[in-house]
C-alpha cells in the first residue's frame, strides 16, 4: 500500500517538506490512545535469533535507524514502535544551527537514492539530551556528534567534547561524525593526525567515567585503501569501540538519473542504492584487513533483508537504514527482521 498508493503522492512534493509532514503525522497518530500498542503489534518482530550483543550492548534486533532522520531526538518512542532495534540521533552540534540554505534534500527516484546537503541542521546537544531523558525505558539510542559550521577545524575537539559531555547520561553509545560532505572542511578531520587527537581526547574523558560508553567512528565511502588502513590503525591506537561504514558519497558515478538533473541539484552527499556496493566493499575491507578486530555497523543502500544480509556477510555486526526507510516505508524493519530470522533457522 505504501509504495503503490502513498509514495507516488508524497514524491510530488518537496522532500524536506514531506519529511516534516510525515514525522509530524507519525507523532500525532501514535499519540492517539492505543495506536502505539497497535503499531508495535504490527511492526515489532520479536525473535531470539535476532538479538545481538555488540560493544557490550544487547540489541533486540540488528536493524537500526541511521543518523539524520531524527536529528533532534523528537521521535524516539514512535520510531521504536516501528520495530527499530536502535535509533541514532543527530548529527548534533553543541550550539543550534539552521544548516544550509533550502532546498537541500533531493530525490534520485531512478536510482533509489537521495542527495542531501543538510549541513548539520539541529537544535543543539542540550535540548536533545533533555528530550532523550523522557523516552521510554529500554530504547537503545546512539548520539551522533559533530562540530558547528563556524567552528574552525583547529577548535573542533572542543565541540566534540561539549556534545559528548552534554549527551553522556542520555545515550547508550556515541558516534563521531567527521565524514559528512556538507560541512566545509569537515572531512579533513578524517586524516590520521587530527582524527587520532579527537578520538584520544574523547576516550580520555570517556575512560574517566564510572561506566564508559562505546565510541564509534563514522567514515566516508570515498576513502582509499591506504586511508582505510589508517582507520584500522586509528581504531587500534585509540581503542574506540568500532566503526560505522559508511556515510554518504560525493561520487556521481553510474547514476541513472539524468546527468543534467544531477548537475542542477549541485553539491551534497548521495545515499541509498547508489552507495550500496561501495559501502559493502568498505565493510569487507575493514573486517578482513583488521581480522575482525572491531565491530562494524553497516549502512548504505539497505532496502531488503537480502541487502542487510549482504552487509552482515561482509563483516557488519549491525546495520542501519535511512534512504531505504523513505522508499520502502514503515514496514521495512519488519520485513528485514523477518527475512533475517527466517534465514537463521
Automatic annotation (TrEMBL):
Q: Which residues form the active site?
A: 180
Give the keywords, sorted.
Answer: Cell membrane, Flavoprotein, FMN, Membrane, Oxidoreductase, Pyrimidine biosynthesis
The listed locations are: Cell membrane; Membrane
**InterPro entries for the chain:** Aldolase_TIM, DHO_dehydrogenase, Dihydroorotate_DH_1_2, Dihydroorotate_DH_2, Dihydroorotate_DH_cat, Dihydroorotate_DH_CS
Keyword Flavoprotein annotated: yes
This protein's pathway: Pyrimidine metabolism; UMP biosynthesis via de novo pathway; orotate from (S)-dihydroorotate (quinone route): step 1/1
Task: Please tell me where this protein is predominantly located.
Answer: membrane
Top-level enzyme category: oxidoreductase
Its cellular-component GO annotations read: cytoplasm; plasma membrane
Which Gene Ontology BP annotations are present? 'de novo' pyrimidine nucleobase biosynthetic process; 'de novo' UMP biosynthetic process
Task: Please give the cofactor(s) recorded in the UniProt entry for this protein.
Answer: FMN
Summarize where FMN binds, as residue positions. 67-71, 91, 144, 177, 218, 246, 272, 301, 322-323
Residues bound to substrate are 71, 116-120, 177, 182, 247-248
The record's remark on the cofactor is: Binds 1 FMN per subunit.
Give the matching Pfam families.
DHO_dh
Q: What are the EC numbers?
A: 1.3.5.2
Q: Which SUPFAM superfamilies match?
A: FMN-linked oxidoreductases (SSF51395)
Q: Which GO terms describe its molecular function?
A: dihydroorotate dehydrogenase (quinone) activity
Residues forming the Dihydroorotate dehydrogenase catalytic domain are 50-341
> How does the UniProt record describe the way this protein sits in the membrane?
Peripheral membrane protein
Q: Which residues form the signal peptide?
A: none
- Can you state the subunit structure given in the record? Monomer.
Q: What does this protein do?
A: Catalyzes the conversion of dihydroorotate to orotate with quinone as electron acceptor.
Regarding protein family, the annotation reads:
Belongs to the dihydroorotate dehydrogenase family. Type 2 subfamily.
Its protein name is Dihydroorotate dehydrogenase (quinone)
Instruction: Specify the species.
Output: Arsenicibacter rosenii
